Automatic annotation (TrEMBL):
InterPro entries: Ig-like_dom, Ig-like_dom_sf, Ig-like_fold, Ig_sub, Ig_V-set, Myelin_P0-rel. This is Ig-like domain-containing protein. The keyword Cell division does not apply. Belongs to the myelin P0 protein family. The chain crosses the membrane at residues 12-37, 159-183. Residues 6-149 form the Ig-like domain. GO terms for cellular component: plasma membrane. It is found in: Membrane. It is a single-pass type I membrane protein. Keywords: Disulfide bond, Glycoprotein, Immunoglobulin domain, Membrane, Signal, Transmembrane, Transmembrane helix. GO terms for biological process: cell-cell adhesion.
Length: 211
């Protein structure tokens, strides 16, 4: 005796397949939800300190004991990448290489900041700096890159911003002094007016014994 199983409608099969694909995509999106933000291009004057800014956003709650931050360097000349910095619970600066004693932690994990500072940059530091952050199980996603250009002098735009900043500060101080001086003058005028108003009735008074 042959028992026939009921046929499954093609629409049901397609619907089940579509639901399975959507579930898989949702799981992938949930795991790979970390986003890293970097400025892209930066300039630094030779011999000065530069802050490489890297911030991130994770779709999972931050776990300070599990989050890892890795910085690496890709030079302009064809060669292998070099480790710049590592962070997990505490900073781990490099013990060897061109960045030894040159890198310091400048971030705040709970503030979603994975920035570092490179001290006394040199022309050999020209290249691409790669920032990677992992917050398990959120370990996938794009890395952040910063293309650093070490120059001999500050660019015109930087000088302009510096001039505007200094000029704005001086202008603010001048305006504040003008306001203070004006307030003092107004106060003195008001005091003099009050004294005049008090003195006038005294002059108008007459001695009652004099006719």
């Amino acid at each position: 005796m042959i028992i026939r199983q009921p046929a499954v409608h093609p629409m049901c099969v397609n619907g089940l397949y579509f639901f399975t694909v959507l579930s898989g995509l949702a799981g992938m999106l949930q795991v790979s939800g970390i986003h890293i933000y970097t400025p892209g291009d930066m300039e630094a004057v030779n011999g000065t300190d530069v802050r490489l800014k890297c911030t991130f956003h994770s779709s999972f709650p931050l776990n300070p004991s599990a989050i890892t931050v890795s910085w690496s360097f890709r030079p302009l000349t064809p060669s292998r990448e070099e480790t710049v910095f590592h962070y997990q619970v505490k900073p781990y600066p490099p013990l060897e290489g061109i960045f030894r004693n040159r890198v310091a932690w400048a971030g705040d994990i709970m503030g979603r900041d994975a920035s570092i500072i490179i001290r006394q940059v040199k022309f050999s530091y020209n290249g691409t700096y790669i920032c990677q952050v992992k917050n398990p199980p959120d370990v996938h996603g794009m890395v952040g890159e910063i293309r650093l250009h070490v120059v001999t002098t500050a660019s015109f735009s930087e000088l302009l911003l510096l001039a505007l900043g200094v000029g704005g500060g001086i202008a603010a101080v001048v305006i504040l002094l003008i306001i203070i001086v004006s307030c003092r003058r107004c106060r003195r005028r008001r005091q003099r007016q009050l004294e005049v108003n008090e003195e006038a009735p005294r002059k108008q008074r007459k001695d009652p014994t004099v006719w």
